[in-house]
Design goal:
This protein has about 220 residues and is mostly helical. It has helices at about 5-10, 15-35, 40-65, 70-75, 75-90, 100-125, 130-150, 165-180, 185-205. The longest helix is centred in the middle third of the chain and has 25 residues, at about 100-125.
Length: about 220
């Protein structure tokens, strides 16, 4: 039997801790975004919920469709959102600037959700390329909804942001380590998350940029 087929028949089942960790971290970024805009506690909770669970809801509701999404049937996800909101409030009261904690939490969550989404898609029998795309949607979905709700240009759309690319880089590392190197799933996931985190942070630190596409006059208008 081809190695790829064996991999699809026996995909690695990542522990739910990875999913909950990504939910928590994205919820923190949602809470920080709400606090920076002086929202009340309802706004903080709503933005933490949407950011923490948005990507997973898109993944399970649109692509995998195995009944009600786990994030609404398992109370641990709501606990992770609540803890993320509380963490955001705790640190938000003590920090005047949110850029660094926001960036770090978002980068870790980005890599984690990318790996989780790719792994769950492979477990569902999706082709490898589709699994990569679903993992990317899983990774960027919560941040996309967060930015839209606070009227920011989503990070995934901004020229110069290695955002979806960072998530997909981590997914490729995960698949390569599990399929090619035969490493255990948990170890592969941790390395892949670190890789996605490194790509995201280095892109900001070193100024790696993608270029904006422009129209014929160079202004974006034709």
């Amino acid at each position: 039997m081809p190695h790829a087929a064996r991999f699809l028949e026996n995909p690695f089942q990542l522990h739910i801790t990875f999913d909950l960790a990504a939910t928590f971290l994205f919820a923190v970024t949602g809470a920080l975004a709400a606090i920076s805009r002086r929202y009340d506690f309802v706004g903080v909770l709503v933005l933490a919920f949407v950011t923490g669970l948005g990507g997973a809801l898109l993944r399970d509701g649109l692509f995998l469709q195995f009944g009600p999404p786990a994030v609404v049937t398992d109370g641990r996800y709501l606990v992770a959102v609540a803890l993320g909101a509380a963490t955001g409030v705790f640190f938000g009261k003590r920090l005047h600037r949110f850029q660094i904690p926001f960036l770090l939490a978002d980068a870790v969550a980005l890599g984690t959700y990318g790996v989780v989404g790719a792994n769950k898609s492979i477990a569902a029998g999706l082709p490898m390329l589709t699994a990569l795309l679903v993992g990317a949607v899983n990774a960027v979905g919560g941040g996309l909804l967060r930015d839209l709700l606070v009227h920011d240009v989503p990070l995934v759309f901004r020229p110069g942001e290695f955002y979806a690319l960072a998530a997909m880089a981590g997914e490729l590392v995960f698949i390569g380590l599990t399929r090619g190197a035969g490493l255990p799933g948990t170890l592969s996931a941790l390395i892949a998350i670190a890789a996605a985190f490194a790509v995201r942070i280095l892109s900001v630190w070193l100024g790696w940029r993608t270029e904006a596409l422009s129209g014929e006059d160079g202004t974006g208008e034709r």
